[in-house]
Design a protein that fits this description.
It is a single chain. By secondary structure, the chain is an all-alpha fold. The chain has one domain: Amino acid/polyamine transporter I (Up-down Bundle), CATH 1.20.1740.10. 68% of the residues lie in helices and 0% in strands. It is built from 14 helices and no strands.
């Protein structure tokens, strides 16, 4: 049995309330991966407010840029239902993970939780899915940055060169070692994207026609209350919306660096409440005014001038998003390599060499994916179906069942809760299989019709919808 399992020092609670406050049990140094003591670098320094902002930045930037085009595929009403439904599930599953981690404080990552409930094989599969997910979304962040640089420079360089610049910018920001030190730039990153999106929302409402639509004569606006997509297109759009709030497994490394992990649920509720309200309002307005002519990412939907302004303001936020995704994936590998080593919390050459090597490896891999599949929507949908569905839905359902195994023989209400979490695992399996099939079909169609040119092409594919 792994060391992580031996560090599971707090007994599972049996209360149905799943309260994060576990009474008088002191979990501050009880099995925590990052210790406190003389001669040790203190990593546990993040307040709950900074935690909430980091969570906001992890979730907000990519989703708000892709949901309007997903709305076109599904229609406004099903699209709105998807936003509300998926964000509610994502919030609940985030709380399950936090509650589980507070009961079992030796769990630094979602992979440690997989080890606890399923053993080493599940741990390794979960860790691989975690890395896959955040390498892909880091690639989407690089696509966003390269798209912004393209827009601001009026395509003065080959898009592939802008992708290299984007990768270097993201890697530089991600190399900051502690979440406490990166927290201040997440404030700037969140507000930059929020303001950029707000400018686009206002901008689209001032136009007689969408910027990408024919400016004279009749044209198909493409607004539908209820859409009629193919299965592949519909499941890809639903997976994109789900993915927009599914990065909750990245919350756990941040939680391990909180001053008080018992305040985790407060940060999650603030984050997901704001995200859901912003996603719903912004995406419905942009789709209402742009119809089928919405851009992906959506910052290009209000015309060339507004596009430049919004990308100029949002560039910081896009870069910070990519940096956070690289950071959490690198932190996972870093802790796996140095766990139970004196170098984990020291300032040694081994410590810094390992950390910077992890950053470089994650950044290069994300850059290669960004260049190979440079359409923003498809990257997020691919991450959602392959990795986030099992990580953000399936595994949390399993974690809840693990801590509430006695519910199967309890009251009717307890049995109902138990079965609902079994259903949650079933939803994750359906989304994994169906979503992966759908996005592969969509990517193949995009290569076939020229929406995506060859990998490492100089064409600006990132604005394709």
């Amino acid at each position: 049995m792994s060391d992580e399992k031996h560090q599971d020092l707090v007994e599972p609670a049996t209360s149905s309330t799943d309260s994060v406050d576990i009474g008088k049990v002191d979990i501050e140094n009880d099995g925590e991966i990052f210790k406190r003591g003389e001669g040790l670098e203190d990593f546990r320094t993040v307040s709950w407010i900074h935690t909430a902002v980091i969570f906001l930045k992890l979730i907000f930037a990519t989703g708000v840029l892709t949901i309007p085009s997903a709305m076109y595929t599904l229609g406004a009403f099903p699209g709105a239902i998807n936003v509300l439904g998926w964000q509610a599930l994502n919030t609940w599953c985030a709380l399950i993970q936090g509650n589980f981690r507070n009961r079992h404080p030796g769990c630094h990552s979602i992979a440690d939780m997989g080890n606890l409930v399923g053993g080493k094989i599940v741990k390794e599969i979960t860790g691989l899915l975690f890395l896959t997910a955040f390498i892909i979304v880091a690639a989407s962040g690089m696509v966003g940055v390269s798209t912004a640089l393209n827009a601001l420079s009026e395509h003065s360089l080959c898009t592939n060169y802008f992708s290299i610049i984007a990768a270097l910018m993201v890697a530089a920001c991600a190399s900051v070692r502690k979440f406490e030190k990166i927290a201040w730039i997440t404030w700037a990153g969140f507000f930059s994207v929020f303001i950029a999106v707000f400018i686009v929302v206002v901008g689209v409402t001032t136009r007689d026609r969408p910027a990408a639509a024919p400016q004279t004569g009749a044209y198909d606006f493409g607004y539908h209350v209820i859409g009629h997509p193919t299965f592949a297109a519909g499941i890809t759009a639903a997976s994109t919306i789900f993915c927009s709030g599914a990065g909750t497994s990245a919350f756990l490394p941040v939680m391990s660096e909180m001053r008080n992990p018992r305040e985790y649920s407060k940060a999650v509720n603030w984050c997901m409440g704001l995200v859901t309200a912003a996603y719903l309002s912004f995406s419905l307005v942009v789709y209402k005014w742009c119809g089928k002519w919405v851009a992906s990412p959506s910052l290009g939907s209000a015309g060339p001038m507004v596009k430049k302004i919004s990308y100029g303001i949002g560039l910081i936020g896009l870069c910070v998003s990519g940096a956070l995704y690289v950071h959490v994936s690198a932190k996972y590998v870093f802790v796996r390599i140095l766990r139970n080593s004196k170098h984990l919390q020291s300032n040694s050459l081994v410590h810094w060499g390992t950390w910077l090597g992890c950053i470089a490896a994650m950044s290069i891999t994300s850059f290669l994916i960004a260049s190979g599949v440079p359409i923003f929507n498809y990257l997020l949908s691919l991450a959602g179906s392959i990795a986030f569905a099992p990580l953000a839905l399936g595994l949390p359902g399993w974690l809840w069942i693990y801590d509430h195994a006695n519910y199967w023989k309890g009251t009717l209400w307890q049995k109902t809760l138990y079965m609902l979490h079994v259903v949650l695992i079933g939803i994750s399996i359906f989304l994994t299989v169906g979503g992966t099939y759908g996005v592969i079909v969509q990517i193949m169609d995009a290569y076939r019709d020229g929406s995506i040119e060859s990998a490492f092409s100089c064409a600006d594919n990132s604005n394709s919808s």
